[in-house]
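Sequence in, structure out.
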Amino acid sequence: MRSTTAIALAVGLLLSGPGCSTRPTATPDLEFSDTALHEEFAEASVRLYVRRHARLLAVSYAIRTAGTDLCGDAVGPILGIAAWRSNPLFGRPFFEALERIYGVWAGSIAVVAVQPGSPADRAGIRVGDQILNVAGGAIHSDVELFDRAAAFEAGAIPIALLRDEQEIRVAVEPLLACRPEAFIEIGDLMLTDRARGDHFYVTSGFIRFAKTDDELALVVAHELAHRIAGMRVVPGPQVEVRADRLGLYLAARAGYDISIAPGFWDRVAIEQPWSLSDDVEHYGWTRVPPHGYMPSRAAAIPKIVAEIQHKIENGESLQPGKI
């Protein structure tokens, strides 16, 4: 059936090409005629995005817990979960598949990844659990979930869950870490620096672009550095270099290979030509383009990497000094 569908799509494209004298007058029906194939695609999409959430969670958890003392006032309890709320961009078939696989219904705040060994894991939270409330307060968004947990200061964090149509309650023992959470947003590389309150996005495009977890760690640590140091107030080359410096220390502390940083950011620059100049106004940007100022950064990153590697080789503490 899949080959038949592919042939039909190919024939349709040929018939609608520029060499054809007539063109369709109505929008084609985009519904799959094969229900089983439709469901298969939707379920594959669910599993893909669950894997991406799990990957981002694992990398960000390692960085946030290893760099607690570098995060200043931006410290709070970390749960160790990735949670989802329905996004209209995904569409009904996606959430029907999510319900079939994990029992999660659209509109709920659902756990899609749990970091092994994390406070949430030790408390018994599982993938597919739906978050009803945290510390007695109802939760209406994934951001609210983490903000409410971070604000709780009375010991173990009480969380009410719905699992297999039954409400259960768990108590999550807090572990202090860098507070900003990393969320996935559908988009290309250039959207990565958008914030959600104290938190930040990493786009699906950047997760695909990062070939290894070491590369993804460079992105997460750089954006985390912006959030914890308030480095979005006065943008410029020096701000980006400061974020690179703190971010590389954060990534190295978590055990990631920072020697790849110069080559990785070179790849980003090639992918995003607006980053090839420190003169942002030359490109007519009304705001600073994400991951810009590459000339200044390209000069600084190898020096920062060499500094950190020297400290590691000599058994010195990985403290970046004044940022």
